[in-house]
Structures are given as C-alpha cells and as structure tokens.
Amino acid sequence: MTHYSDEELLNMFFQGDNPDYAFNLLVSKYQQQLYWHIRRMVISHDDADDLVQDVFIKIWKGLDTFRGDAGLYTWMYRIATNEALTFLKKKRTRYFLPLVDVEQNLAEQLEADVYYDGNEIEKTIQKAILSLPEKQRIVFNLRYYDQMKYEDMAKVLDTSEGALKASYHHAVKKIEKFIST
Amino acid sequence: MKRISREEISRELREMGSHLPDASGSPGFGVPDGYFDRLPSDIRDRISAEKRGLQSPRAVVVRSPRRLALAMITGMVLLAFSLSLFLIDRGTDNGYLSEADDVWQKDYYTLYASMDPLYFYELILDESIAATEPSSDITEYDDAKNEAILQYLYNTSEYYSMPLEDLE
C-alpha cells in the first residue's frame, strides 16, 4: 500500500473525488498507533475497540473544522487521549470508585484479559505504570512506548516541554521504585 | 509523524540512572486474529450508518451487550422497587385506615348536610344524656325546681316537728 503523508491525505480528503477513500487511508495509517495508545490507558481490548472506533468517528466529523495549525497526528492523539480519559472518568463515577480503586480495577483487568499474555517482568512493569497518576501514565506511555518527541507531546497534552520532562522523570523513578519493592 | 529513536529513549533512561528494559510497542498485549484488517471496514460501516442518521446495528447489538444487560437489570430493579413501594403502602394498616377514614368522614359530612341539625344531635347523643338535658321551657323547669324545694321543706318540717311556715 502506498504511504501518503498527512498533507497528501488531507488534500485527498478535501479536494479529491473520493473523500471516503482518503479517510480509509487515514484510518489504515493511524489505527494501530491510536489503538495501542488507548489500549495502554484502558487495558481491556473490548473497551479499546469501542473507543478507537468512537475516536475515528470524531475525527471524521471534526476534519471539516480541522484547521491544520496543529499537526494532524497530534490532533488525533489529542482526541484519543481525551476519549480515554473521559472513559476512565465515567467508569469511576459509574461504579462510585475512588481513583486508587480504578487503578486496582485496571490491574485486575490486566490479569483477566484474554488478550494479554505478558511475562512476569512485563506484567510488573504494567502494574507499576498503572500505579502512576493518570496524566503521568500518559506521559510515560507516550515517551517510553510511542517514542514521541516532547515537542509533540506538548501539543497533545497542552503542557510545556519542561513540565513533561519532569513528569517523565518522576514516572520513571516511581516505576523503578515499584519494581524494586 | 516522526518518532525519536529507541536509542535516544535508552540514552535518556541511562542518564536518569534507570534500568528499565528496552521496550517498544506494547509488549504482552494482543488483539484477536485479523483485528486490524477488519477495523477500517468496521469504522467505515459506522460512518455510513452515521451518514444515514442511524446508529450501526453492530453498535447496538454487538458493541454494547454489557451496556444493554446493565440497562435491562437497572430497569427491572427500578420496576421492582416502585412496585414494592406501592404494595407496602397498600398493605399497611396506616394505608388502609387512612383510606377508611376518608370514606367515613365523607359519609359523615354527607349525612350531616342532609339532616336537620337537631335531629342529628339527638341521633348521636346517648338516651341517658338526652333525658337529663334541660327542657327548653324555662317556666316548666322553674316549677319543677320549686316543687322540689317545697317537698324538701315539707319533709324537714315533719322530721323536726316544726310548722312549715317557720322553716319558710
């Protein structure tokens, strides 16, 4: 399959004869990145599947108003992050769970998920990540797994690069501490 | 999108003094077979449904079985709760009494409105009480009173062998 740049895809979507085809290419290009970003946040495959579809529907609806001053991919990551955070918030209010219990609940889901078969080290790291505060968890995941630049993360999370570096540093230290105990 | 290299991530971790292992992607996490092959068409179906102004059948039936079950259970619980409240209200003594009281009071006022108040008064009074009620004729009442006094004086004069005139 030909790999189009974001600009080319946007041009095809807005000026081409077949915007549906252009959008399909966009989905194919970014589905895995967005899925894994969401999955690491919500842990369960079923929830991630629901959310990634909702995210692409929102992207499709919002493309008309997308101004392009933010990069397409940081804009999409931003939508995905907000959707995942909203989902976790709803989960907390629906079951009247305090924050700590949601993290505990996610760790239990990890154990029970049929689509997770990490070894002991991977499981321990995942549990350590789940013990982090929500925002710190996102920063760690975006940097450590998605290999995202601080510059791009700043656009996704609407935070300064300095704050993100500090947050990542704290997250790494906490994970190290969790693993060593 | 340009990612930074894995080497750069590792270098950054080393500078922090961290020993976290090198990991890219999502180690341990998996998806059903062919999931990413199907996902674009699933999304396309949902967009088509959105365009038609309908919700995708998959969204209703398959995507949300847990939500559907939860909604059904919640509905049943609410129904049972309101039914139980209704039955408890109907079944208690208070419930019945308050209704009976209402009927009784209604009958009472209906009867009262249709009757002569004096007749009604006699109806609800005991006979004994009614008998001791003073007569409405004040002269007759006074005569009876005088007669009793005279009888008392007569008896007293006889008892003390005194002429009645002296006692008066």
Structure, described:
Chain A has 9 helices and no strands. With 181 residues, chain A is an all-alpha fold. Chain B has 168 residues and is mainly alpha-helical. Helix content of chain B is 73%, strand content 0%. Chain B is rod-shaped and about 145 Å long. The chains are: A mainly alpha (181), B mainly alpha (168). Chain A binds chain B through residues 6, 20, 23-24, 27-28, 31-33, 35-36, 39-40, 45, 49-50, 52-53, 56-57, 60-61, 71, 73, 115-119, 121-123, 125-126, 143-149, 152, 169, 172-173, 175-176, and chain B through 1-6, 8-9, 13, 16, 18-21, 23-32, 35-36, 39-40, 42-44, 46-47, 50, 63-64.
Q: Outline of chain A, from the CA principal axes?
A: globular
Query: Fraction of residues of chain A in helices?
Result: over 70%
Give the SSE order of chain A as H and E letters.
HHHHHHHHH
Beta-strand level of the residues of chain A, as a percent range? Answer: under 5%
Distance between the termini of chain A: 47 Å
Largest beta-sheet characterization of chain A: none
Helix content of chain B: over 70%
Average pLDDT taken over every residue of chain A: 88
What's the alpha carbon Rg of chain B, rounded to whole Å?
Answer: 50 Å
Query: What oligomeric state do the depicted chains represent?
Result: heterodimer
How many strands in all of chain B?
Answer: 0
Q: Mean pLDDT across all residues of chain B, rounded?
A: 73
DSSP helical segment count of chain A: 9
Query: Judging from the principal axes of the Cα atoms, what is the shape of chain B?
Result: rod-shaped
Q: What structural class results from the helix and strand content of chain A?
A: mainly alpha
Counting DSSP E segments of at least 2 residues, the number of strands of chain A comes to 0
Contiguous uncertain segments of 5+ residues of chain B: none
Tally the helices of chain B.
9
